[in-house]
Each structure stands twice: as C-alpha cells, then as structure tokens.
Amino acid sequence: METFCEAVQFYLKHLEDSVYPVMTEEQFAVKLFPMYRYFVTVWLRNNSPEVKLGVIKSLRPMLSLLLPSDDMREQVYDYIPLLLAEYQGSLEALFVTQVLRQLLEASVTTSTPIPQMQLHTIFTELHVQVCAKAPAQQQYSGQNLMEIVHCFIALARSYPRELMKFFFSQMETSKEAVRVGTLSLIRAVVGAEEPRMNIKAIYLAIRVVKNMLSDSRSKVRMAILRIIGQLALSGYQDRIKGWGLKYVSVQLTLSTYKLTNRRDSFYQRDLEEKMVHKVTMDTVRIITSSVSGMTNEFWVRLLCYIMETDYMEALTPICISLTNLAERQLHGNDGGPSLTGKSRHVDLPAPQKLLARLLVLMSSPYKGEGRGIAMLNLLRTLSQSIAPSMADMWEVEIPLLVQYLEEHTEFTWNQKAWEDKLIRFLRNSLKKTRGSNWSLCLSKELNNQIESFDSPSLEKGFLYRALGFTLAMGLEADKVEVLLLELLYKTDYSNDFDREGVILCFGLCARGQVKTVLNVLHDFEERIQESEQSWQMGAWRKDHPWRREAVKSALMVMYSCVASYCHPQMLPPHVDSPITSKIIHHYSSSCQDVCLKMAFMKSIGQVTSALSRVQGLENFQFAQKTTLTGIVMGIIKAEPTDHLVSPVRTMAMDTLSHLSKLKPFYSMEENSELMDISIHSVISLQPPGEANESIKVLYANALNTLAQLMEGLMQRQLDPKGLQEMVHLLEKWILSEKEWEREKAMNLHLHLMQVYVQSVGVCIPLKLGQFGSLVGLIVPCTCDPHRRTRIAAIEVLSSLLDLHASQTCSPWGASKEKAFARCKEDLGGSDLENVFCATSSIAKAACMEFNCDEVVSLIQKLCENIGAVDLQHDKASVTWISTFLRMRVKELEDKVAEILGAVLTHLQVVANLEVRRLLIEGILLLAHHHQETVLTVLLRQPLPMESHLTEVWLAVAENLPFARAMLHGLMGRLQARFTPRVNATSKADIWRLAAVDPLMTLCTIRLLIETMDKDDKLPDLFPDLIYTLLLQLSGSHGPEASSPVLKTWRLVHTGTLPEEINLQRITIKSMQLLFQRVSSEGLVRALQEQGVWGLLENSSTFLEGVGLLARLCVQSVEGSRQRLSELVLRGMASDILSCRISSTAVCVELMSNPILYQEKLLKPAVLMLDKGVDHEAEAVRVLSLRALGNMALGAPKQVKRYRKLLLERCLCSLRESTSTSVVSEGMAALTKILAELREGDVGSSFNPISERCRAFFDNESELLRSKAFVLFGKLAKVVWIAKKHFFKVEVRKAWVPLLLHCEDPCSDAAAACTATMFQCLHFWGWKALEGSCARSAASAEEMTAFQNTMCSILTQKKPAVLQDFLLETITYVRSNLSRIRIAACNLAGIIMKQMSACYLKQLDLPALRNSLQELQLDSDPGVRRAALETLKVLDNCSQHSLLASPEGTS
Prior knowledge:
By secondary structure, this protein is mainly alpha-helical. Helix 10 runs antiparallel to helix 11 (199-210), helix 46 crosses helix 49 (998-1011) and helix 50 (1022-1037) packs across helix 56 (1137-1151).
C-alpha cells in the first residue's frame, strides 16, 4: 500500500505529462478510502505487532492522498478515535503521533476543523504523554514529544480557546510534572514560528501563566521564566512589562537569597536553585537585549542587585545586561528618556557607592564567568553618570584594563599586578576630583562595604587596600580620623584576615596622613585605657569580644606599618617615639605568646626596613636598638632547641639582621653573642619528617634566615679575626655527634666561607697558623657518613685552599686541579674505601702548600677533633696527620715538640685501636728523625704513666733496633745528671740536655726492658744499664734525691703518686728485670737470697747492697766486667757526690778482684782512689780507703808497687780527728796492706802507724778499738829485726790497755785485743809467760791466772815496770766503760798482790784508796764489788807493808 501510494503520488505529479490521463486525485481518493477504512478498522486491531506497525506506517502515505479531498477529509476525521486508542497498546507512540500530527496540520491548512467532540480526547491523550514518563519500551519518546508539541501548536492555531481552557484546567492540579509539562507546551505555543500565533492565543496563554506565578517549586518557576523569555524573544515584549519583569526581578532576588543561605544537607535543592538562577539570568539577558522601553523599576532592581547581592555568580550577566540597557538608553534606541534623565527622578545608588562596589568586585575579575570585563564595560558606559570629571580618563584607562584581562586567563594572570592596576586606576580617578569631598565619600562607601564580604577573601583584602589609599588622599583630617576610629572599633581583632587588612589600611593611609594615623592610634589607646577590664570587655563590639593580646598584636603591627608606608622624611622624627616605644610597650605588657612574638618581630622588621630605605640617615642613631636586641635575643633563647613549632625564631633572626644594619652598630662581642645564640637555636633543630610539609617549610626558612643573619653580622668584621670567630662558633656543631647538626653547620660554614672569599680574597692575609686550623676543622668531615656533609666539607676545603693559594701566589697546577676534581667525585660516592682514598689523595696534594707553622696548627686541630664525632672522622684525621708527617717530617725539627704534645694530649682519649695505632706510628716516625726531641717530650709527661703513653713505649719495644736506640737515649738522660753541664751546640743538643723527670725515665726504661724481645740479652747494653740504674739509685739516696723542679712543663697532680712509683722501687725493679734477662738463674737467685734488693732500697744499707751487687756481678757476669770498670772509673771522677760514692763503692769490689789489673785499669783506679781519700765527703774517703785496702785482695803483688801511696794515704786517714769511719777504714786498709808487706817495705811509716794505732786503744768507738787491736796485731806480725826494739817499747806502752780491753764490752774488740795481746807476748822475751796461756781467747779464770803469772814475773824481773802498770791501771778506774773499770780494779788488785813491799811504799796509798772508794758510788754493782775487793787487797797490802817496815817491827 505504501508503494502504491507513492506511485500514485508520482503519477499525480506528472499528470500533465501523461498521454492518456485516466484518473484524477479525487478518483484515487475514492478508490483508496475503503482500503484506509479497512486498515484502520480491521488490520490495525490485529494482535500481531508487525501487522500493527505495517498498517500504521502505511497510513501516512494513504492520508497524503485522502486529506486533500474535502469529501474524504471529514470521513477520515471519524476514525481519529481509533488511532488515539492505539496509544494504549504496545505500538510505538511516535508512529501514532506522526499520523495524528498529519491530520491536525491538515485541518489547520485546509481550515477544516476536527469535530469538537474529539478535541478533549486528543488534548488528553497528547497531554498525558507530555506530563508522564514514557514507558521503558518506547524507543522514540524524545521524537514523540517533539511530534506532540507540533500537534499542540496546530491545535492552538485552530482551537486556541479550547486548548487554553484545557491547559487552565490542568494547571489547577497540584502536580508539579503536570504544571511543568503544561507550561512547556505553552512556551512552545508562544514560540511557534511563522506563521505567528494569533494574539488571542498569546493573551490566553499569558492568563494561564499568570495564574501559576505563586507556585514556588523550582521547575515551575523555571518553566514560567522560560515562557517570559520566550515571549520577549518572540516579539511580545509589551506583554511581559509589569508582571513579567517583576516576576524576573523577584526570582533573581529569591534564587540569590536561597543560594547564599543554602544548607549543606540539601544538595539536590541547591542544584535546582542554581538551575532556577541560571534560567533567571538567561531571561534577564534576553529581556535586556530585546525589550524596548525598559521600565526604570527594572533598571533600579538590577542596579540594586549588584549593590546588595552576595551571590557573585550572577554579577557578570547582570552587568552585561545593565551595560546593554545603558547603551540602548544612552543612544536612545528605544525612543525613551535616557538614563541620566531618569536618574533624576528615581532612586539610583550613589556614584561613590556604585564605584566602590564595582572596584572591590573587580579585584577578582575572573570569578563568575569573567565579571571583571563586564564591570569595566559597565563603568565605562556609566562614566558620565558616575563622575563626569573622570569620564575622559576612564575612556582611556578602562580599555587598557579590559585588554589586560582579555590577554590573560584565570590561570595566567597575576593578582598583585592586577590589584596594582586597579589601585593606580583609583588613584588617577581620585586625582580628577581634587578639591571636592569625592574621595571622602568614596572612603565612607568602602568602609560601609567591609562587612559585606567574607573573611578571608580577595575582595575584602583589596577593599582594605583601596580604603587605605582613598583615606590617604582625604583632605579633611578630622573626618579621616572619624573613619579610622570607626574602623578600629568595628574590627574583629581575633580574625587574622580582618586584623591584617586594617593594619594595611592604616599603613597606606599613613602615606599621606601619618600624623592623623598616629593621633588616631593614640586616641584609640587612651579610650580603651589599657586596663584588663577594658581590654576584655567588648565595650564597642558585643558580637565579638576583643582579646587583649589580639588588640596589642594589631597595634604593634599598625605602628610598624605606619613606619613602613609613611613618607621617608616623616619617619625619623617619629620612629623612636611613638612608633618603636609603643611597639615595645605593647609587647612588654602582653602575655608574649607566639602570636604576639610574631607580631612584635614583624613590627620591628618593618620599622628597621623602613629606616634602611630612608636616604640621608648616615648620622641617625636608632635609640631603641639595644632594647629591641635584648628582647629579640630573649625570644630566641626561649624557643625550644629540639623542635620547630612556629616561625618565631626565623622572624627573630630576620629582625636581628635588620637591626644589625642600623647605627649604633653592634660591638664584636655583641656580634659573637648574637651569632652563637642564633646558631644554637637553629642548628640544634631536628630535621622534619617527610610527611609534614609545613614544618619542612619552616625549617628551610629558618636555615636561610640564619645564613642571611650570619652573613650580615660577618660583614661587620670581614677579616681573619672575624672569620676565626665565626668558625669558632660553628666548631662545636661541625663536631656534633648528630649528623643533621653537622650537615647544617657545614653548609652554613660553606656559605659564609664563600662570602668571605668573594668579599676579602687576597686583600687581608690569614694569621699565622690560622689556615692550618681552619683546614684541620674541616678535614674530618670529608669522611662523614652523611654524603651531603662530605660534599659541603670538600667545598669548604676547596674554598680554603683557593684562598690560601691566592694569598700565597701559589696556584695549583692543572694536574692537581684534575686530581682534586676526581677526589671530589669520589667523596660524593657511597664507597667508604674510595672516600678514604680520596681524602688521602687530597692530603698528599695539599701537603706541600702548608708551611711548618700551618702544619703544626693543622695537626693540633686534627688531634683536638679526634674522638669528637665518630670513627670515620677520626680515621680521616689520622690519615691527614700520617700523610703530613711522612711527607714533611724532616722539615719539622723546630715543631716536633708542639706536634708531639698535641698528639700525646689527645691520644689518651682515642678509643679505637686502629686510630691509636696510626697516631703512635706518627710518634715513632718523629722519633726516628728527631729522637732527642721526642724523648724529651715523652719523658716530660706526668706520672703515673698513662695507658696511651705506655702504648707508645710498647710500640717502641716492638721494634728492637729502635728500642735499643731509645734505651741509649734514656740512659743518656739519666747519666746527664751525673756528668758536667755542657753548652748545647745544636737544636738536638738543646732537647737532649733539657731537664726531664728521672722517675719517668726510669719507668720508661723498666717498661722497655720488660717488654722487649726476651731473646735479646742486651749484652752491649747491660753494663751501661746496670751502672746507670745504680747511679740513679744512689742519687735517690743522696742529697739530690728529689726530682728537679721543672716549672715550665711539669703537670701538677692533685694526689700523690702510688707507693710503688718511687725512684728506689722503680730502679730496683728495672735492675731485677735486667738481671733476669741477661744472667743465669744462679745470680738472680743469689741476689734474692742475699737480700741485695732490700739493701739497695734502704739508704742506710745502700752501699752495702752496692758492694754485694758489684761483687756478684763481677763474679757472674764475665762479658761486662771491662765496660763496667770503665764506667766506674768515669763515675769516680764525677762532681756529683752520689755518683762518685756509688762508683767508688763498686770500685771497692773491683779492687778486690783481679779485673782491674787484668784490664790495665789498676793504675787509673788507684789514682782516682788517691784523690778520693782527700775528698770532702766522708763516704768517698771511707770507700776510697777500703778500695785501696782491697788491692791486697785483688792485686796483692801490686801492693808493694803502690806501698808508698797506700801507706801514706792510710796513715793520713789515721790522723783524721773528725771521722770515725775514715779512721776505721784506714786501719782496716792498713791491716790488709800490711799483710802483703814486709818490715822493710813499710819503712818509716811503721813508727807513726804504731803510734797512731795505740792512740785508738782507749777510743770510745768500739769499731776503732777493734780495728786498732787488729792493726796492732798485724804490726806485730810485720816486725822483724829492724823494728823489734821499737816495737818492744810499743808493746810495753800498749800492755795495760791490752790487758784491760780483753774485758772490752765490745766482743769483737775484746777478741781482737786478746788475740793481739798474745801475739805480742813474745816481745817480752819470757818463755814462761808465753806458755802460761795456750789460747788467744782465754776464759776469765785463765786470764786472771795469766795476769797473776805476768805480774809475778814482772815483780821478779821488772818490778818498776809493774809499778808503772799499776799507776797506769789506776787511771782506767775513771773509764767510761764499766767493764774496763771492773777490769782495772781487778788488775790493780792482782798487781798490788804481786808487788813487793818496797814498791808499795812508794805508792800514794791514800790517793789510791780514795779512787777506789769513789767507785763505791758507781752505778754498776759489778764495779762496786770489784772496787771493794781491790780495797780489801789494798788494805791487806797496806798492813803487810806496815808490818814489814822498820817502824812496824819496832
């Protein structure tokens, strides 16, 4: 059927061309209608969807043939209900609607109305589809709705009243969907294209719409607004004046209000309201661009909307709309009165108010779809109405501003630059109104708008700025004061943004009104009275009570802002007072929390920066600088040193930087204090974690500010002293154990070093030793575990080397530069081995650049730093020390003591064995080349020997040849005390001859002997060592026993040395160790068993111990005898008494041994001993005599050769009247010498020897008596023929003492006396007397018998001699010895018993009796008994003598 109809249509179109036209259109319609009817009534009811779809699609081509026929048309209308019924089925509605649209449009075209009875059904079926949601199975619902709209347009053209009545009835329902659908259809009717809808339909449609104006639902409101817009677009502008414009205005206000007061929980409603607002703005745009003769009311509403709305998104379209309206009205396009004419009769906003509003809003020009351009265009359009005086300028300036905005986007523009342009535009505009109150009025309007904007916002920030500029140009100061005071009172100081805005406003105002601003601030302070009550009571602002600190903070910054913005020439008179004094006052009287501290420092920073910008202030002295500095330093000190919580310390340091540039300048001490406090405050901070970005920013700012402060302060003293002070302050942080502190300190050092090098360069050379000290501080950090620290350290080192090279004019060669660059790269790596190799290479390269003084300072600094950080730093230090010593050791002769002192001082704190080993190797290296200096320094260390010094000597002991050399040196130091002082001829001599503590030397010798290789017996050193130690031991017992007082070097100890550390014990221990090393076990055992060491330790037995030691050595140590003898002879010539005594004591033993004779040393020994006999020291004389006497033991055959000397020296000793020891030793020596001589060998010395010998028989000294008896006995053996007679006389003279001293209280003397007496018996020539006692040691009875026999013989043969013996005996009764007195009494009794009467008569018996009677008073009972017995004998003898006398006989 569809194809058939198309063929018919083709046939009818070409009917004129047909040769045989058979049928017309009417004929075809008649033929076709039955088929149409059958299709609609029968096939369309088929249940098959495919049949229904085929039928419905075929109806349109059929209708295109049927509807043109008037007859067929009405019949076709009858079947419309059947078509409408298909809407209820499953058939796609679109195809039904297309057929229905074809019918309705045909009715309009042919003016053949559809029957009335069918209209309501058509309205209803179509309307339901518009208002209800289409079924899911409908695939073409959108196209269907478009077809329905066209159906309603056709119905409206034919049946406007019926349709609008239907719409009205539908509007009465409360369903939103029904109303929205109906309004959408009305809009479509209103907006129908040509031919235009008749006015009646429009009128009826507006009536329906007006009936719904009270509906507040969003979709309904949008539908109504769209209808109003459509009316305006379709040319029905007159129809919307009044109700339409009013509705738009109301919806604009309502939607704005709802959007600005929306709630977060009603998101869907907010979206709908935004849609309403958007539709409203579209409607306004349509109205303003198309409606002619716009009412003043709508104009005013739009202007008021701009002035009052808080919904900024609407401003752009409103401004565009207003601009369009204004342009049309100004150009009279609508034929109505102009804006300016109308403005005289309506309530328009004040020009200043409008300008203020637009200016503030334009500060964010890209908000609200680019409102800046729209507002600028509006201003330009209204320029004549706002301010005619500005119009010309605006015509030039505004296009430039528009151009700027057009050239940029919201992503490329610059806020500050744009605000500066607006402020410049404002300033230029206000200049055009000078002489009027325009700027003051504008200021009031700006002030009034402050509360219209949120805080924070760009608009409000710009508002404060604009207000400040505007007030600054005000001419009436009193009115400006009022506005400023009002601003102060209404500001919420707890709001940071508002506070900062007011501060900025005051600062900008001070540019032209500085006195006014200061007066206002003073007035404000007085009004609030600065009392606790007035601060805390919100007297003026009940809605936000002020905080006292917030107001004080604001006032401080206001004063500083005034200083910052005011005219430079106005600042000096006001800066000290009131500006700075007020700032200090407000801070000092506050709680000084973080915010106030920041405000205070911000204020001071602004004040100082403002002063720095003022020209011509060379002589200006900032009076408040000292006070401010103290406050800021206190703030820095109060900050926590371990963490960062605020920018306070950063601001404080920045403030100090500004203050440091003002006069009076800080002193050097103040500079150092500021640096120290600031460094401590920042470097001690622990780095922030990765997560906290804000703290990281604070941390970075603090570091940068510290660097700037240090740079600024260092600029005040750009010389080596200032550099050293700066490094001194950083040193403890560079050596910190915390890696972050080292890194920060090193980076700061690098920055300041670069500043110094760039600023000073070669102008001021570094001080002597400073370069080495600076390098020494940095070197350990080149091996820091932290890579960034290493890199910074090598950069600092590079700067130092470059500075030194430039100052010494010794630039590095290209090869060195390349090597240094490679080392830098290695130091930046992670391989520790490469790092250490790199720093060693740098040391080798830089070594030759240092002079000797710099080397010393470098090593001293490196030693100081050992142990300060960690092992890697220590290894770097010792690496440099080792390198420098290896390469420069020969040149450092004059510096060895300083270097060694530094190394030793710090060696004791080194814990790591490897580091200690390297340092000790350095000491040994110095010792190899400068032994004497090193020895002196080492020996001048304090006792007890500390572990580090012991370790050095142990290292010496490990190298046997070196240890032997050091032993030689040590012995030389000890021997130097016993040799004459000589003048030094070289620097080595100076150190060799320098005084050292012998105790330390001995401790060192002992340590070396103990630790050296045991296999080395030290044969060549033994005699020297043993002799040296012996001399030292003798010195400890002598008058020079105390150590020399070496005030220039000796350390003072608070406590005493341990008991075991003394000269005697250390020396003896060293000797013991030496004997254990070199001798047999037998000698060691003998020394121990015979108590040699105990004898040596005791000063009273020392010489005995020396003798015993020498005797055992001579007997056991064969290979060292000659050397020992030579040393002894040398020592005997010493001027040191102890040395001479000890040497002579050893010589005593040597003289008793053939060694001296065998080594041809006897003669010099005898000559030295000869001199020793005359020595002033008794000990020397004694030992010399003993040694001479020992010649008889060691070289008996040589006694006769030296007899004259020997006898003479010994005889001289017997004449010694003051020293018992000398006399005793002389007699002992004579005794030994006489044993080897004959009578003839003694010669003339015999007689004086005998005489001197007898003189000591009655000596008080037991020793002398004993020695004298022995010597007399030896003389008796020597007597031969020549001296026999002489000696008989001597024996006779000595007989009574001999008889008496046989009873000597000293057993030795008594034994010697008895032996000598019996040896001399033969000189009496009496055989009977010789045989009277067979033993030399007789008992008391035997001795009494001997005495009786001897007296009997003498009575017979020599009674006169017996009488002399009695008289001599009686003299002994007064002897000091009681036993001698007893013996004298007993002998006297025996003699008196044997004496003849004649001889008794010759005696003075009374005197004799008196003597004996006196003894009765003796304290000794034995004496009294003996005297009594003798008295009895005397009485008996007296009686016998009386009887025998002639008188008695008679």
